[in-house]
Amino acid sequence: MKFKNKAVFFAALFTCTISIAQTHKSLEDFKPSSVNQPGKAFPQVNSEGRVRASILATDAKKVQLDIGGVKYDMVKDDKGVWTGESAPQDEGFHYYQLNIDGASVPDPGTKYFYGAGRWGSGIEIPAVDQDFYALKDVPHGLVSENIYFSKITNSFRRCFVYTPAGYEKDAKTRYPVLYLQHGSFEDETGWPTQGNANLILDNLIAAQKAVPMIIVMDNGYAYKPQTGESAGRPVSVFEEVVIQEIIPMIDAKFRTIADREHRAIAGLSMGANQTMRIIMNNLDKFASYGGFSGTSNYPSSAEIEPITFLDGKFNDGAAFNKQIKVFWLGLGTKEPNPFPGSVGAFRKMLEKQGIKYVYYESPGTAHEWLTWRRSLNQYAQLLFK
Amino acid sequence: MKFKNKAVFFAALFTCTISIAQTHKSLEDFKPSSVNQPGKAFPQVNSEGRVRASILATDAKKVQLDIGGVKYDMVKDDKGVWTGESAPQDEGFHYYQLNIDGASVPDPGTKYFYGAGRWGSGIEIPAVDQDFYALKDVPHGLVSENIYFSKITNSFRRCFVYTPAGYEKDAKTRYPVLYLQHGSFEDETGWPTQGNANLILDNLIAAQKAVPMIIVMDNGYAYKPQTGESAGRPVSVFEEVVIQEIIPMIDAKFRTIADREHRAIAGLSMGANQTMRIIMNNLDKFASYGGFSGTSNYPSSAEIEPITFLDGKFNDGAAFNKQIKVFWLGLGTKEPNPFPGSVGAFRKMLEKQGIKYVYYESPGTAHEWLTWRRSLNQYAQLLFK
Questions:
Q1: How confident is the model at residue A186 (pLDDT cuts 50, 70, 90)?
Q2: Residue A91 belongs to what domain range?
Q3: Of A312, B102, B227, B288, which one's alpha carbon is 20 to 30 angstroms from that of A235?
């Protein structure tokens, strides 16, 4: 199973950390992070993108700031307050934690976000283009928590649904829908929280750069119920849940335009992989696709055989171009392997088949949320036009 | 200022803790708490209501579980895992934290909740009547995050809006509205998260015990913007925000019945105090009130003079009874002072004035969320009938 392999890969990524003592001299223009808890002075970020954390731990022997795969030693003052700084971080949003005498814990100064398989601390390094996802005085859409019972998984599930500003006022207007998925070890809270999907669309729609649309953000982990006898490897049924449960529910509950031309699907990383399979298996349901830092040949960078890849769905380039309205791929310039390799191999295949697509590179960002915020910002402008 | 006094009172409540070493023998029927992060085995709760926490902290000297104002010493095993238990806790939801060598941090096993002035850990002790706030296979309403810019405070604010199941389907039906407020050191996330307000109403409406209604949950902290010259004590303008900004916004954005008979207001603790003032100052806007563990004479238990109290609004009992549809007070039987004293003095005044009201006691609960979930469950059944 793909997810199992990814679990191992990411676990390695997150635990392969080294310990670094501070030797640099930081610029003293630190400010509290924009995602701190109300009234909390720490953590802070300076103009170099360094993170400064601080915590009272009177009796601790060793306290570290653990961010970006590196553990930075913090230093204790005479009041028992430990303070320390990271090397400059990439612009955008990062997950991190503190380590106190061997205990990995969230920093009590930040709000909490679900990523890396846990609810934990996050920090925002101001980006040069942060205006596009900023909270501004424009009309704001609603983000609604929608709980439902899934018969396929025999469990309660949840999606968040963005409805654009004005949705409530005019009871007749119907809207196109973007189904937007998170990555591995994340959940349905990713896009409406650290993804800022609602603010990105509020700003685009206010500037008339994007068509008003509904966005559905569900959880990409969905498994067949296990009975006593069948217990074993969990079998993903996310595609079935999307097609048989989520889409009919959204079309019944919200004022959608319920045809393929007015339905798009996109995802990041694992979500890009999943949603590419979903659109290719269900071309009667979707006409546009966005793959943010991911493709369905992940993690391979080997040449793709269009006759066999995804049941030959990319084999007839001319037919593909007729059916698909927007086929969009994005990647950060600093993404680690295997992402550039597998996305690169996928693009080569598209080009060989004469398939039209849009390719976007996010400058200076890795496999992180600023890449995906920018991807959504670019992709959403092309949809339903 | 009232809030300042409360701040001191609550700070005292939360920091006055004692250290307790384990000597008891617990029943070994511990199960993971229902509000743990996905896949996390700890914290756990047993049938006595004891909380068992566990955390890896290989190099720590002292780790404690800090719950209900008491710090319980945890014990280290040979792998560096610390485990410890609390005394039995009251049924319902409690905030708590861990203490690792002097650092107070959230438990990485739980989801996080805003209370006690921070985002931190919470735990759920199963209650005898937990069915009324359980997630069940009934039609579910939506909880929508609504961001708005407040001119009065010159800041972005947020409310959560519950719309009952079926709201989206029939574009003509209009609904009554309950404005529902959190307590001190909490925020607008309290009722839709640890309060389970949406699930309580979903279940009541499905059982036809409550009228379908909209619920608006905003943030009770709202202050006049401070200029350089006026900087000093913050001045609360929450009442102005409710009357001049929130109500017009909700009536414009949602399909409400926009008259006083179809508008109710309620709150818990600080919110009970605030909302009583708001309804009494705005009887043209609201016809029903719910005070959960709080009244506007807080924290005094002295006899109330109806001629002067809240500008004499309770002085004419007969007129009061004509104007108010539901006047409702609730309190937990285990609430600490000053709550029983101030609510008791308030009830005496009501009785002296011949004012009709409903009084509810939540058995075996203190100044905590089970008292308030039960209060909402009782109060909502009486509204708009």
A1: very high
A2: 27-126
A3: A312
